[in-house]
């Protein structure tokens, strides 16, 4: 399998190269040259197999030549062995026809562990084989950073630098990033919003001299291997509700469009998904775009679901690439217009997007009300992100097609908001119960590319 850029103007790479690179050199995002499909029988045969076995069968066609079958099975086994639930991604019923996919049983209590734990094992395997070193730089609105640090802490061939917006992540998220003691972990608090952190990371990738000097590697949700890892739980959950013999829909709390784009890939692979519903909080650029065709960032308003406080949704570029019939030049042009303030999606492309995606928005009051109402009706305590999903799903779902809403984080990751909404204090799982006692280590940085690059060069110079 070969990988191409959404902007059509970067070298074609192997799976391993695309994984280690992250962002393409033309500014685009890597995608497989073709999307492999599973037959009806292959999907039906996923019923009853372990999560790891399903993961192997679903991802194998994408990685093929990078590892042997045994190597890849070993990587998957190590990635998921530290999850706190035997099913990895258990499905709970909320109401008739409405299900919750719990994706928060990984070591940092958010769905990002599914991808990041796999990426950690993939990097470790590849770098050991090649003898190379890399410097991982990522931007986070909270959960990516903690998941990346957890996946890479203590690995020999990797330094990990995570930029998070100072004062804009939850205390649990911050502590998960600032308390690891390993010397290869560097938490950087940037003065700005998540979009600033993400923009500086993109700038570093576009500074080729810097990129090559430090061996920059990206594990943000733009990394194809992350999208791929997330495809798996769409299959396992749909199959447990009767796919491929029956259609299901998904509602996905969305920020950077990575998680829901994995659902799009699952659909293209042959999984009978009826609707993929984009659920946004008050930062609703994706909902506005799907409703009106206009994609115009207008400033982030901090919310109680901070991992979705995003206005520049990087993975949306991948969906646009397919909506524009894989025309890299058209995508490059849209991204140029975005730098000038925004773009409008063509009527044809909008129609293509709407064939798969629906969307809805949930404001702060409705998020809180949904946390309380869901606790009362089902006993399930939702994190604010998952509550956004549940509310939008309730508004949109149709009788006859089961709806699966993705629960993207554990409520204990956002205890203040959850307690305010529900009156219940969500306790941390035992493995993390001393998090508030551990000492923190963090460097405050200005929103300034040169200063951040100097710091990284300094810390990685041997
Ligand atoms: C990252 C994150 C999201 C948004 O996921 P995207 O892939 O960026 O759309 C939603 N909820 C939680 C808890 C997250 O950590």
Q: What report would you give on this structure?
A:
With 462 residues, the chain is α/β, with parallel strands linked by helices. The protein has a domain at 91-106 and 224-422: Rossmann fold, CATH 3.40.50.1100. 45% of the residues lie in helices and 16% in strands. The protein is built from 19 helices and 16 strands. The strands form four sheets. It has a six-stranded mixed β-sheet with strand order 4-5-15-10-11-14, with helices on both faces. The chain has a five-stranded parallel β-sheet with strand order 9-6-7-8-16, sandwiched between helices. It has a three-stranded antiparallel β-sheet with strand order 2-1-3, covered by helices on one side. Strand 4 (91-95) and strand 5 form a beta hairpin. Helix 6 (143-152) packs parallel to helix 7, helix 16 crosses helix 17 and helix 16 (364-378) packs across helix 18.
Number of strands: 16
Order of neighbouring strands in the sheet with most strands: 4-5-15-10-11-14
Which small molecules are bound? pyridoxal-5'-phosphate
CATH-derived topology of the domain at 91-106 and 224-422: Rossmann fold
CATH class of the domain at 91-106 and 224-422: Alpha Beta
Can you name the CATH architecture of the domain at 91-106 and 224-422? 3-Layer(aba) Sandwich
Average pLDDT for all residues: 95
CA distance, first residue to last residue: 36 Å
Q: What is the SS-derived class?
A: alpha/beta
Question: Uncertain regions: pLDDT < 50 for 5+ in a row?
Answer: none
Percentage of residues in helical conformation: 40-55%
Instruction: Provide the β-strand percentage band.
Output: 15-25%
Tell me, what's the shape? globular
**Radius of gyration based on Cα positions:** 20 Å
**What is the overall number of helices?**
19
Sheet with most strands = 6 strands, mixed
């Amino acid at each position: 399998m070969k990988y191409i850029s959404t902007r059509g103007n970067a070298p074609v790479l192997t799976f391993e190269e695309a994984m280690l690179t992250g962002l393409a050199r033309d500014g685009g995002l890597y995608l497989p040259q073709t999307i492999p499909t599973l037959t009806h029988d292959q999907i039906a045969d996923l019923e009853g197999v372990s999560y790891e076995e399903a993961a192997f069968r679903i991802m194998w066609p994408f990685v093929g030549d990078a590892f042997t079958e045994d190597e890849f099975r070993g990587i998957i086994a190590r990635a998921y062995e530290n999850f706190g639930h035997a099913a990895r991604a258990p499905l709970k019923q909320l109401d008739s026809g409405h299900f919750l996919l719990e994706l928060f049983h990984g070591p940092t209590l958010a769905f990002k562990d599914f991808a990041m734990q796999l990426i950690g094992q993939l990097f470790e395997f590849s770098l050991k084989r090649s003898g190379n070193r890399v410097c991982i730089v990522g931007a986070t609105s909270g959960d990516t950073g903690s998941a990346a640090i957890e996946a890479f802490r203590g690995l020999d061939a990797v330094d990990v630098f995570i930029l998070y917006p100072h004062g804009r992540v939850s205390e649990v998220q911050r502590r998960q990033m600032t308390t690891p003691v390993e010397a290869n972990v560097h938490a950087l608090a940037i003065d700005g919003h998540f979009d600033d952190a993400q923009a500086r990371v993109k700038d570093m990738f576009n500074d080729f001299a810097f990129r090559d000097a430090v061996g920059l590697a990206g594990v943000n949700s733009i990394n194809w291997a992350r999208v791929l890892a997330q495809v798996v739980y769409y299959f396992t959950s749909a199959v447990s509700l009767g796919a491929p013999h029956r259609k299901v829909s998904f509602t996905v709390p969305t920020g950077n469009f990575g998680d829901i784009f994995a659902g799009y890939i699952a659909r293209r692979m042959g999984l009978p998904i009826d609707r993929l519903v984009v659920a946004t909080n008050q930062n609703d650029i994706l909902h506005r775009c799907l409703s009106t065709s206009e994609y115009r960032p207008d400033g982030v308003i901090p919310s109680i679901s901070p991992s979705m406080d995003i206005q520049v949704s990087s993975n949306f570029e991948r969906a646009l690439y397919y909506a524009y019939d894989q025309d890299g030049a058209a995508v490059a042009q849209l991204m140029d217009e975005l730098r000038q303030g925004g773009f409008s999606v063509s009527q044809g492309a909008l129609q293509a997007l709407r064939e798969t995606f629906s969307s809805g928005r949930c404001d702060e009051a409705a998020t809180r009300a949904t946390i309380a109402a869901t606790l009362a009706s089902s006993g399930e305590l939702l994190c604010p992100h998952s509550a956004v999903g549940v509310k939008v799903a309730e508004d949109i779902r149709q009788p006859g097609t089961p709806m699966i809403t993705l629960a993207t984080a554990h409520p204990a990751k956002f205890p203040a908001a959850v307690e305010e909404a529900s009156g219940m204090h969500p306790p941390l799982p035992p493995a993390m119960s001393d998090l508030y006692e551990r000492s923190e280590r963090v460097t405050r940085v200005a929103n300034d590319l040169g200063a951040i690059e100097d710091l990284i060069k300094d810390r990685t110079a041997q």
